[in-house]
Amino acid sequence: MKKSGLIIILMVLGTIYAGQAQEISIVTEDYPPYHYQEKQTIVGQGTETVQAVLKVLDIKIDIQMLPWARAYKMALEKKNTLIYGIARTPKREKKFKWIGVTSPVNYCLFALNDRSDIQIQTLEAARQYHIGTTREDVMEHYLEEKGFILEKNLHPNFSYEANLNKLIYQRIDLWGVVELTAYYILRTKQLPENTIKKIYCLDDVSIEGAYMAFSKNTPDALVNQFRDALKKIKEDGTYNRILDRYRQ
């Protein structure tokens, strides 16, 4: 059979690059309202952005929702793996091939609303408190870089909801999480927004937002296709229309 007429069927449909089928994996974590599961379907603002990019490229790929540490490890090690909802930090800069921003984010430390004893004006002042983080996420990495210590003032967990429960039962003093996610989880648990309050926000890791990025060993041509498609949906208004639906 001639190469030009060959139809390659993959379990996961990818794109064609340099005459060979590129099998692509896409991974993310449960981080509502950016990406989460609803009736067996992965949805959310970041997910819609990725799906819009795939539509421009005219490809269909199933998204895998994994615990963050597992998704992150897969994106570090497996060729042609796209991860989204990932913050672009100096520590990660050379570990991935970055596509672009998929979601605006604002990382903050939250306390119970009735904890009037917790007053923080600087990050340094947070060292005296027990902070719940999510394993391998950007806030945990950032705080470690600033000298916070795992199991001393940082207490990692695999679940954002578990951290909220620990906060409510005062097993931690502060919850490190993206603002939009914190209030979304409160709503799903039917808790009022004033259950918690913002204590301190990490502006220097909240500026650009969450990215989509490919594993380092992904061909540049494939990476560039995704960059161009993301640029297109931002220029034609698709991205802003997605954001507007989640701002309401």
Describe the 3D structure.
The chain folds into 2 domains: 10-104 and 209-247, Periplasmic binding protein-like II (D-Maltodextrin-Binding Protein, domain 2, 3-Layer(aba) Sandwich); 107-205, Periplasmic binding protein-like II (D-Maltodextrin-Binding Protein, domain 2, 3-Layer(aba) Sandwich), CATH 3.40.190. It has 7 helices and 14 strands. It has helices spanning 45-57, 68-77, 138-145, 160-168, 179-188, 220-235, 238-247, and strands at residues 15-17, 20-22, 25-28, 36-38, 41-43, 63-65, 81-87, 96-103, 107-112, 131-134, 154-157, 174-178, 196-201, 210-215. The strands form 4 sheets. A 5-stranded mixed beta sheet has the order 6-3-7-14-8, sandwiched between helices. A hairpin with a 2-residue loop joins strand 1 (15-17) and strand 2. The N and C termini lie far apart (54 Å).
Shape type: globular
Q: Average pLDDT, to the nearest integer?
A: 88
Integer count of domains: 2
Looking at the overall shape, the CATH architecture of the largest domain is 3-Layer(aba) Sandwich
Share in helix: 25-40%
- Strand-pairing-aware structural class: alpha/beta
Largest sheet: 5 strands, mixed
Question: How far is it from the N-terminal to the C-terminal residue, by CA?
Answer: 54 Å
CATH homology group of the largest domain = Periplasmic binding protein-like II
Query: What fraction of residues sit in β-strands?
Result: 25-35%
Beta strand count: 14
Q: What order do the strands of the largest sheet run in, or round the barrel if closed?
A: 6-3-7-14-8
Element-by-element helix/strand order: EEEEEHEHEEEEHEHEHEEHH
What is the CATH topology assignment of the largest domain?
D-Maltodextrin-Binding Protein, domain 2
Which value, in Å, is the CA radius of gyration? Answer: 19 Å
Low-confidence stretches: 1-21
- Count of helical stretches: 7
CATH class of the largest domain: Alpha Beta
